[in-house]
Each structure stands twice: as structure tokens, then as C-alpha cells.
Amino acid sequence: MKKFAATVLALATALSLVACGGGGTGSGGDATAAQGGTAAPQSDAPAGQGAEATPEAINLKVWIPEEEMELTQQLCAAFDEAHPEWTITYDISVTGIDESVNSLETDPELAADVMQVPSGSVAQCVNEGLLLPITYDIDNVKSLYGEGAVSAVTGDDGYIYALPFSPNSFFMYYNKDMYTEDEVQSLETMMAKDLGDGVYNFSCDMTNSWYIESWFFAAGCTLFGENGTDPTQCDFNSEAGVAATKYIIDLVNNPKYIEDGDGLAGTLMKEGTLGAMCSGTWAMGDPSDPTSLSGALGDKLGAVPLPTVVINGKESRLSNFADYKTIAVKSSTTQPLAAQMLAEWLANADSQLARYEDPAVQATPTALSLMDNEKLANDFATAALLAQTEYATPQPNIPQIANYWTPMQTLGESICLRNEVNDANIQETLDKVVSDILSTGLTG
Amino acid sequence: MATKKNPPARSEKNGLISVFRRGDIFTRLSFIIFGAANMAHKQIIKGTVYLVIEAAYIVYMAVGGVHNLIMLTTLGTRQQGMAFNEATGIVEMVQGDNSMLILLWGVVTCVLTFAMIALWIVQIYSGDLARRTEAEGKKPLTFVQDVRELFDSHIYRLLLAIPVAGLLVFTVMPLIYMILMAFTNYDQTHQPPGNLFTWVGLENFRALISSGADLSATFWPVLGWTIVWGFVATFSCYFGGMILAMIINSKGIRGKKIWRTIFVITMAIPSFISLLVVRTMLGDKGIINVLLQQLGFTSGALPFLTDVTWARCTVIIVNLWVGIPVTMLMVTGILMNIPDDLYESARIDGASPVMQFVKITFPYMWFITTPYLISNLIGNFNNFGVIYFLTGGAPSSLQYYKGAGKTDLLVTWLYKLTRDSKDFNLAATIGIVIFVISAAFSLYSYSRSKSMQEEESFQ
Amino acid sequence: MMKKAVIGLRQQYLPYALGFSALGIVGMFLPLASVGGKSVSVLSGVLAAFSGGSPFSWLLPAAAALAIASLALGIQNVFRPTVAGARIWVLAAALNAAAMTVLLFAGKSVVDGLGLLPGSFMVRNFGAGYWLMLAASFILLVLVMRAAKLNVGYIVLTILAIIWLFPILWIFLTALRKETGYYVGYFIPRGFTLDNFVNLFNNASVLPFGRWYVNTLIVAGCGCLINAAIILSVAFVLSRTRFKGRTTFMKILMIIGMFPGFMSMLAVYNILKGLGLNQSLLALIVVGAAGAAMGYHVCKGFFDTIPKALDEAATLDGASRWQIFTRITIPLSKPIAIYTLLTNFLGAWSDYIFPSMLFGDQQSNYTVAVGLYWMTDFRRIDSYYTQFAAGALVVALPIVILFICLQRFYVEGLSGSVKG
Predict the structure, then answer these.
(1) Closest C-alpha to A205, from A420, A415, A431, A428
(2) What's the angle, vertex CA C332, arms to CA C329 and CA C333, rounded to 5?
């Protein structure tokens, strides 16, 4: 009777963990069984054409943001009608596009079969083997979208891993009382205008590496080579990069510029003390709510693509990352065919239009066939977003992009918050930024 | 105390081998069958419990345990792949092994096996004791007596059973798992389930040591700030809280409960909320800067969180705001236990209040709270919350590796490493270095501390 | 002057107090502030205040009147000291110091509002007169309080309480603010509303805050009881009993918590999944309880101070260890037991990082910490910030109530119980 307590505890632990041991290693052993299990029934129901076969009961789990719940239920019901070969039990739960990747990484087994992910995270998920390539009827699906959208979701093996259903970029809002439509075409013109005391002319979030790259791309720099596929290339420290940085330094030191962050610019816009700001459709808010941006400014609110800048004597338009909201299928789904057909259904032109027309969602579509839609053209924010998409630079779709964000943010902070970057150290600073972006970790 | 066992005489050899030699057939049997000796010597229930546990373990090993251990040697061999399914016309994923889960379940199995070995030893001695007790002509303890002992002389077994089990499962196992990660190539390019990772031995430590100036230019300054932060944050809160508690407790202060409640309100709001709020208050356009300018104190915004020195002072001061009430609450409890007669005799000797603090209060507090202080110090070295929510490590610096910040502690820097580049092996390697340093430091200071050496002097 | 001693007064401080009171009056004739070479005395500021100005202008005459009143009371007290008189003097001195302090913050509004000086006033423009009056008012207050045998700690506590409550006040005002928005350039909201609280509980489809609140109450309630029981048990065993491996165990407890916890979260999640507990509230309670033992230090330190003689006497009376634990040690340790309960109760409300990973898509199981953090996403914060602040206050409520209820037990210390 040396350690009775130890005995009790060992018993408890042993018994309770018997279960997990089996389940745990099963990830390897059981996988083949699962694979065989799913492959067999699928051969009974080939690719949606074999409508004669008795309906097969399957479960699909879908993750969507909270505002799309109702819409997704309708779309899924429509999918059911179109596919009598399955009787699908849906499990639709709320997991926003920003949260889905984390949840998928944490527990791929419990993750949804179909979910929304930002295109910027697709490369990382593919690298981790979490996404299933979309191959069913892919040529037709591809033709739905523009080239930029397709390239944003194509892996380096050439497969398409997600379906881009809405562009996700920022553009420029401006106050029509302060600027004319001509003036907002050029940042120099905007900054030169005197809007009065206590009124700022322009705001952007330079300390955010999702915004600051616009100046570098405008100056002609490239990230990860021309195609964004070479993890050893980045010329932000070239002459053009230096010129872009100098431009940024001058801009943020201009008293008429205010650095955005945590919704500051939106507040100033609403107060009428800011002429223009960079943001996305998410900033609009509900026009009927007087405290939202669109509600507060009403007809005075305008939106256009980002303005042009003159860097190194050359005038070119600011070019941000082309980012998309996409729908993807997890790699470990037990229903690969049904899941990707549902994903394609949720991302097709009709669903995109429904998503755009739903007042709770209002997501700008990407389908080329919808671009002539009259309603879209008349919606100024959507029009600005779509126009901006054409000037945007595809966000590199390689895992190395994970190294881009922090160094660039640091650069932005050094410039905006601490005035640490000056003519003397500008080259050295950019060299360090580039070496951090291109670094491959310790063992690499 | 009701019953005391007679410990075996010192001269008698008590190794496992001598137990085997001197024992009867049942004792020897208990080397294979758990509880055999106990059952043979009238401790039926106890012996049965041992036997059931052994059976459960054997079943577990047969069902999955052995497989887990075998997989642990390679961390998986089948890589995830793709296959074209002709029937459906799509490409499907063929799932491979998940190295992460293999590692984890391997650790679990190992820990269980060690627990089993410990139990094996325990039950051998237990059976031997029962045999000897019977040989001396006494009755071995019955199960009921055993249970009764648990509430008296063996109360430590009763009260520690659940905490130890909890620690083993949710702290020790994950800890071993993390340590083992440092010996694998679990980095950005080897992410499960898409890729396998495997053992690389000491490769990561070699890389850490030989890695160029970049990493050491980050590691040492961050370590330095972590140490400064740890000491300043710990002791400022400690003394601040002690002084506050003493003021509230001093004679002549009315409404003690109300004063305490006021300071507890700041504890009541979850710290991550108050930190996020304070962060907005301290921003360039935050309310503090707005007020300072509107009230004519400054003409421009103060760089509370953007300038290096300001930011470091700010986090320490904000941490005071968070930490002082907690210490105040704790110290109040202990202050009340200082015997009044100590003060009375001091007063008779004409000691001033300051002298009373220096001679009585402080030594007493110091003595009792040293272990708390040490663990608090370590807690502050690893104070993820305050830094993460208040500054996020900002202001970040280009001199540091991949934009680590000037207020980053080692732990938040590690977090950035795992979040941004997913180099878990590197993070675990640095984690081990931190762990060794802080463990050595705390063990040293702990065993040197007075409260450890003279634990009973105040009793 | 002081012929007879008055009980309840320390008369030796009175003359000094009178001196500083007079010094304050001297300050009134010195410059209040100067901007650009032009300066203005306190008296002219007082006089100007009667002709209007900002709403804070009355502060200046009020401070001056209090200073004079304080001097008069001082003379009265020095020549005819009484306890009541000294108390009144303390009141006047305290009000005077408060007025001078508020003036520090309202100085810009007062000076600019009176239009006494050209240009914009800054605090650094305050002249010698103001600083003299400010300093004198505080020294006077300290001296008078000492004379009246009042604890000077009140001054410190008042100042500290204001500093500590300032961010709370800000959260409070934000929660009541009608205008949404993250950054606002003013302190007092332009409109007040309770909608932020109402919306928090009325928006169940997007934000089931009520559900989250109940979840957190469950976790915090169960968690604090279980954790406190574990901590007290471990502390008791380590403090009051001796067994083989005790110090080793203490050392192990000390160091196993040192490895950065976030790196083990995925492992903990998978172990929970193996136990079938993932994504449930029970998991939070279990994980909390599993780590509780590591926080035994404060309790053990406290138990160490309880005289061993108590245990020995009880043992002689035939009590078992268990009885000593439950009948002697715990009743003597109320302050620390309450401290332990409270800090563990707090944990569930503020722990964000692990729960955010644990629950995945099970939103109905969220705790308030996860829910509130969800509101701070950059796309949501502008519209949700006021609700976020309201949520913070709602979260604080049960903790404050719990503390107020428990504080009754908190006050009696050991020395009283043992002797009594």
C-alpha cells in the first residue's frame, strides 16, 4: 500500500485514455478504410447524371458568416432540388471567413466540408494539405471568373483550390462636398487642395501591410517575381522602392494626412473633418443607420478606385493586393464530389447575384457574366471596388507570403509612428525589410 | 494519530531483487500478475483493483498502445497524396499519416507506460508488506482501514490524487509533447496533415547556435527586456499592493470595505477588456491624448505606445493598474495574520511606523510570499496577456528578426514565430532554452529562500 | 497660546498649519498665469470671474474663498482649539485642495474663458501664485489632518481611487454613449442611451450574449469552487503534513508551468478530444481544475502562519487530519479562501485565448470573453464598441457582487480568532 492515490490516478488515466489512443493513431490506419468506404458509394452515383439510382443519404457541414445564414439555407435547398441523387442533411453553422482557417487548422476532422476562406490564406492551407483541389467540371467553372480571380486561387501545382465569389479589396471613399470627381483621380491634386482648418485631406493605414504595398506596386516593384511565384525574389529595395518609400514619408509627414487605424478615419469622415479615406465595402454600413458611414454622409459619400501618384516622375495608379473571398472544400471531407459540387453551386453566378441582392450581405460578385448588370454599375461602392480590382496586383499565392506581413508592417510603423526612416538609412532599412521577407527560417 | 506502520528495519535490504528473493511464491507472482500477493494475504479488494488496472493497461496496449509506440519511431511514413477517381471524375485526397497526432499519442502512451511501471513497483511493495505483516502474526490492513488512513495519515494521497492526475494529463503530457517538437523538423514546410515531419535530433539546437547575427540580435535584447520587465512588474505590483493594503488596513481609515471594493472593481473587468480599452485610450487620438491637449497640458499627442521608452514605461504603469488590486487583496489576507503582540511590543519600544514596517511587517510578508513572488516573477516573464493585448509587442523594430517588437517578451515573440511562420520546431527550441533558464533560476532562488529553509519558524 | 491640551488633537501641528494657510493667501497676490510676457494675478482672476466666463470660472473665487475661510478657521483653532473646529478646518482645507486640483485641469478653460490673456493657455503657463497655492493647500491639508488625528491615508486613497476609476468611468461613459464609434474626440458623450445594454441581450441571432453569459456563469461558478477546493487541499497537504517527496513535488509544481502555454494548446485540445470533451463547457472546467494546483503558493504561505499547536491539540483530542483540515484550518483561513475563490472566479471571465480555440464553430458554447473579443474585430469594432463597453460592465457586475457579499467574511484575521 505504498501509493494508493497513485494507483487510483493511474487507473483513471489509463481507462480514460484507452479511447483516445485508438482514435488517435486511427488517423493513419482508419484513413484507408474511410477512403474505401466513400469511394464505393460514389461509384454508384456517378457525377450527378445517374438520377435513376436511389438517393444516397449524405451529410454536409457548411461554415458561413452570420449574415449569410438565411441566404445559404435557401441556396442549399435549391441545390437539393437540382440534385435528386442525394438526400443531404445540412449542418450549417456560423464561422466567419476570418475564423475558418484557424478552426480548420485546429481540428480538420470537425471542420466543415464547405467553408469560406480569404484567398490570401489559400496557399497556406494548401501547403498544410487542408484543401481539396476543385476538379469537377473545372473548365466551365474557370470560365466564370476573370483571370486575376482564378490566379488568386490556383496552387503552384496548377489545381484550383478555392472558388472566388467576391473581391475583397479597399478603394477610396471621398466626401463629394470637398472633392470633385476629377480631383480624386490624383493624390497630388487632392493633397494640394486646401479644405480648411482642422480638416484632413486624405487618410490611409500605412501601418497595415495590406495597404502600404500599393505605393510599391505603383512604383513598379514586384513581390516574389513577376508572377508572384518565386520565393527568392522581392525588389522593394530597388530604386523604385526607395522612391516609393520617400513618397510615403513625405505623405505621412504632410499635416493634411492622417494615419488611419481602428476606425479613426471613418469617424473623421462622419464628422466631416476628412476628405478621403481608403477602405472597403465593409465600411459602408447600413444607409438607414445615421451612425454608419453611408448613413451619416448620404449623398455626399462617393467612392472611386485609388488615385494616381507621381513617383520618380512617372504617374501611375496605386495598386493594392487583389484579394478575394472564396469558397473551399476541406481535404478530409468524406463526400468530395458532393462537397465540391455544393461549393461550385454556392459560388456560381446566380448565387453571387443572390448574395449581392441580399441586403444583409451585399457582397460584390466576381462572375464575368454579372459585370454588365445595371444595378451593379449604379452602385458606386461596388463599381469602385470592381474598377479597383482591375488596377490591383494579384496577391502572391505561395506560402512565403506569410513572411511578408510583419516586416512591412514594421516598415510602416517606423515611418508613420517614429519617423525613423530618413534619406540616410532608407536603403539600409529596405534591404533589411526585403531580407526578412525572403528569409526562410533557421533550418531552411 | 491512530495507527503508524512500522517501517522496515534499515539494515534489511529493500531493493526489488531482495524483495523477490525473500518473498513467497505470491510475492514473486506479483512481479507478473498485479495484486497477486495482496490477494493471497487477505487484501482481496486492493489486489483486485491492481489486477483490473493491469488488465486495462494490457487491453489498451493491444488495442492501440503498441501501435502508437511503433509509429512514434518514424512519426508516420505515408504522405498525403492525390488520386484521380475515375468513377466520379474528380481528384480526391488520399489521407496520409498525421505526424502531429502520432507524436501526441506516442507521448500519451509513454506516460501511461511510466505510470504503469510506477504502479508495478508500488504493488510489489504493497504485497510484500502484507506478507510480512501476516508473517509477524498481525492482520494486514483491511480495505476499510486503508480508506480510513486516507483521511488521516495518508491524507496527502487523498488530496493530491486529483490535482496530480490533472497535472499529468493536461500539463505534463503537453509539456513532453512540446519538448519533443524541438527535436523534429516541424516547420513551415512540414505542416501536417499535408506533410510529414520527422526526427532530426539536435539539428535545431545546432541551427539556433550557428544562426547568424539576425537571431541573436533579437534574442538577447528581447531576453534583456523580458528580465527587466519581469522584475519591475513583479516588485512594483508587490510593493504597491502591499502599501495600498496597509493604508486601507491602518487604524483610523473608515469604510475599509468600500475602499477595497473600489479597487476590486478594476479586477472585476476582465483584464483583456480593460487592456484593450486602455490601449485605445492611450492612442494618438485616444481620450487621454485628447484630454491632455484640450486641457492644455501638451500641445501634441504623447507617443504612449509608439515610442520605445514611452511604450515600455506605459506597459509597466498599466500593469500596475491591473496588478496592484490583486496583490492588495492577497496581502490584506496575510496582514491580518500578523500577531498583534509583535506590534504592541514594538510600540512599547518606541518604534516608528516606518520601523515597524521594516522590522515586522516586511520580513513577515517577505517570508510568507517568497514562493509566490518567485512564481509571480516567472509568470511575468511569461506574461502573454498584458503585452499581447496592450501593445502586441509594438513598437516593432526593423533591427529585430522578422519585426519582433521592442516590448515583446520572449513568450510573445515565440507566439509571433509560430503564428507567422509556423516554425514550431524553432519555437520549441527557444522555448526549451527559456524553460531551462527560468527553471534553474527559480529552483536556485527557491531553495535559497528563507521560507523554504525555515518553513516552520512562524508556526 | 496653547494653554491646555485638548483630547483628540495634536496641537503641535496647528501653528504650522496656520503658517501654510497664510502662505496660500500670499499666493493670491502672485501671478496666476502668464502668456507671452503678459501675466495676471490670482486676485484679478477672481474679480474677472464675477463678470462671466466659462462654467469653470467660479472655481477661482471658490478656491480663494476657501483659502480665506481656511485661514480664519486656522486662527480660530490656534487660539481656541476644539475637536469640532479642527474637523471643520479639515473640511475647508480639503475642499480648498480639491478646488486647486480641479483648477489644474480646468485652468485652460478658466483662463481662456475669462479672456484675461492673449493667445492659447497651456498648463505650463501657470505662474508662481498658482503653484504656491496648490502646494500650500496640500501641505495644509496634511498638517490639519494630523492635528485632528485623522489618517492622512485618506488623501492617498482618494487620489489613487480617482486614478483607478478613471478608465472604468470611461468604459461606463462609453457604454452609455449614444453615438457609436471607436475613437471620439470628447470625454462626455453627446447623447446618453441604455440601448447598448438592451441590444447586447436582444440580438440573439447574431450575438447570443445572454447565452454566453450563462455559460460563463456556469464555468466560473463550478470552476471557482473546484479550483479553490484543489488549491486549498494542495496547500494544506504541503503546509501541514510531511511526507516523502514533498519538497520535490513542490519544485516540480513550480517549474512545470514555465513552458509557454500557448504552444501546448493544440495538444491539450487533442487530449480533450480523445476524452470526448472537446468543444464543451466541461472542458474549460476540467482544464482549469487540472492546472489549479500550481497556484497553491499564497494559500500555503498563509497556512504556514497558523500555529502548529492548534493541530497538535486537535490530534490529542482524537481528530483526524481530515477533520483538522475541514474544522480548523479552513475556518481560520477565510481571507485567503475568499481571495482564492475570487481570483478563480475571475479567470473564467477573462480567459480568452484557450476558449477561442476550444469551441470552434460551437457558438452556443462561447464564453463572454470569446464573444466580446469577437466584437473587437476591425470590421466590427466601429459599430460594436459601445456594446463592447456595455458588455464589460455586465461582466464586472457578478464579480463585484460576489466580492461585496464575501467581504463580510474577509475581515476577521487569524490573530483575533486564535486568541478569542
Answers:
(1) A415
(2) 85
Give the ipTM of the model, two decimals please: 0.89
Query: Taking the CB of residue C398, how many other CB atoms lie within 10 A of it?
Result: 17
- What's the Cα-to-Cα distance from B183 to each of A171, B177, B200, B423, C166, rounded to whole Å? 47, 10, 6, 12, 50
Helix extents (H) in A45-163: 69-82, 100-106, 119-127, 138-142, 147-152
Residue of C nearest to B322 (CA): C164
DSSP string, A163-217: EEEEE---EEEEETTT--TTGGGBHHHHHHS---TT-EEEEE-TTSTTTTHHHHH
Any chain C CB within 8 A of the CB of B191?
no
Q: What is the DSSP letter of C34?
A: E
Asked whether the beta carbons of residue C361 and residue A264 sit closer than 8 angstroms, the reply is no
* Nearest residue to C125 via CA among C192, C53, C35, C58: C35
Domains and CATH numbers, chain A: 53-168+323-391 (3.40.190.10), 171-319+404-438 (3.40.190.10)
Query: Are C383 and A292 within 8 A, CB to CB?
Result: yes
Other beta carbons within 10 Å of A435: 14
The C-alpha cell at A294 is: 453611408
- Judging contacts by C-beta atoms under 8 Å, the chain C residues touching residue B435 are 255, 258-259
B336 to chain C: which residues are within 8 Å by CB?
335, 411-415
Instruction: Give bridge partners of residue B423 from the DSSP assignment.
Output: none
With an 8 Å Cβ cutoff, are B250 and C153 in contact?
yes
Best residue in C265, C297, C322, C397 for a mutation probing chain B (most B CBs within 10 Å): C297
Place of cell 485540445: C269
- Partners of B307 on chain A (C-beta within 8 Å) are 417-418
Tell which C residues from 249 to 308 touch B, by Cβ distance under 8 Å.
249-251, 253-264, 266-268, 270-271, 274, 286-287, 289-295, 297-298, 300-302, 304-308
Q: Which candidate in C126, C224, C304 is best for mutational testing of the B interface (most B CBs within 10 A)?
A: C304
Chain A neighbors of C183, CB-CB under 8 A:
262-264, 267
**Stated pTM of the model:** 0.85
Q: Does C157 lie at the interface with B, CB-CB under 8 angstroms?
A: yes
Give residue for cell 514611452: B310
Residue-by-residue pLDDT tens, chain A, 444 positions: 444 444 444 444 444 444 444 433 333 333 333 333 333 343 444 444 444 568 889 999 999 988 899 999 999 999 999 999 999 999 998 888 988 998 999 899 999 999 999 998 898 899 899 999 999 989 999 999 988 889 889 888 889 999 999 998 899 999 999 999 999 999 999 999 999 888 999 999 998 999 999 999 999 999 998 888 888 999 999 999 999 999 999 999 999 999 987 778 888 898 899 999 999 888 887 788 787 888 889 899 999 999 999 998 899 999 999 889 999 999 999 999 999 999 999 999 999 999 998 888 888 999 998 888 888 878 888 999 989 988 998 888 888 888 898 889 889 988 988 888 888 899 999 998 998 888 876 544
Q: State the smallest CA–CA distance between residue C313 and chain B in angstroms.
A: 12
CA of C121: which chain B residue's CA is closest?
B296
Neighbours of B157 (CB within 10 A): 22
Burial of C418 (0-12, 13-18, 19+ CB in 10 A): middle
DSSP C369-391: HHHHHHHTSTTTHHHHHHHHHHH
- Rounded to a whole number of angstroms, the distance between the first and last alpha carbons of chain C is 47
Q: Do B402 and A31 touch (CB under 8 A)?
A: no
Domain B210-453: what homologous superfamily? MetI-like (1.10.3720.10)
User: Where do the domains of chain B lie?
Assistant: 16-201, 210-453
Q: Which three cell numbers stand for residue A88?
A: 443531404
What does the block give as the cell for B78?
Answer: 505515408
